[in-house]
């Protein structure tokens, strides 16, 4: 494996809660109205310092999607997923976009989000928008 180059973000950003690796700018959030099993999740067009897992078909609240899990390059923790394909034409806008799970991040102000009772027990990808 080659040498890892970690991108350092400037401004207000979210980082991995385990190793503090920078992942995404706060200003780049496309939507805050997503949820996952652990609570809130944010939709992004661009994230950094991640690796992608294997493609898989996953049934979510909004239908069947082809996704890959995304992992922090600093510590290997899963931090969310990327939409590779949406099988429902109304969900095509998600293709190529990333979800970061808020419970796996440290916020721009240093805050951590704790799993709440609002969390979805049976699935992920609830889009309120």
Describe it for me?
By secondary structure, the protein is an all-beta fold. Helices cover 0% and strands 47% of the residues. It is built from no helices and ten strands. The strands form two sheets. A seven-stranded antiparallel β-sheet has the order 5-6-7-8-4-3-10, with no helix packed on it. The chain has a three-stranded antiparallel β-sheet with strand order 2-1-9, with no helix packed on it. The model is unreliable at 116-124 (pLDDT under 50).
The number of distinct structural domains comes to 1
Q: What's the order of the H and E elements? A: EEEEEEEEEE
Distance between the termini: 41 Å
CATH class: Mainly Beta
Instruction: Give start-end ranges of low-pLDDT stretches.
Output: 116-124
**Helical run tally:** 0
Strand content: over 45%
Q: CATH architecture, please?
A: Beta Complex
- Spatial shape: globular
CATH-defined fold name: Metal Binding Protein, Guanine Nucleotide Exchange Factor, Chain A
Q: What's the mean pLDDT score?
A: 87
Helix fraction by DSSP (H/I, runs of at least 4): under 10%
Largest sheet features: 7 strands, antiparallel
Name the strands of the widest sheet in spatial order: 5-6-7-8-4-3-10
User: Would you report the number of β strands?
Assistant: 10
The helix-and-strand class reads mainly beta
Over the alpha carbons, how many angstroms does the gyration radius reach? Answer: 14 Å
Kindly report the name of the CATH homologous superfamily: Peptide methionine sulfoxide reductase
């Amino acid at each position: 494996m080659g040498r890892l180059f970690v991108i350092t973000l400037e401004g207000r950003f979210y980082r991995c809660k385990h190793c503090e690796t920078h992942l995404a700018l706060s200003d780049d959030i496309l939507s805050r109205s997503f949820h996952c099993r652990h609570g809130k999740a944010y939709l992004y067009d661009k994230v950094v310092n991640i690796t992608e897992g294997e493609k898989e078909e996953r049934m979510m609240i909004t239908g069947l999607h082809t996704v890959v899990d995304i992992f922090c390059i600093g510590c290997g923790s899963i931090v969310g997923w990327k939409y590779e394909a949406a099988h429902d034409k109304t969900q095509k806008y998600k293709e190529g976009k990333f979800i970061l799970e808020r419970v796996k991040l440290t916020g721009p102000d240093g805050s951590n989000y704790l799993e709440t009772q609002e969390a979805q027990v049976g699935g992920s990808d609830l889009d309120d928008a």
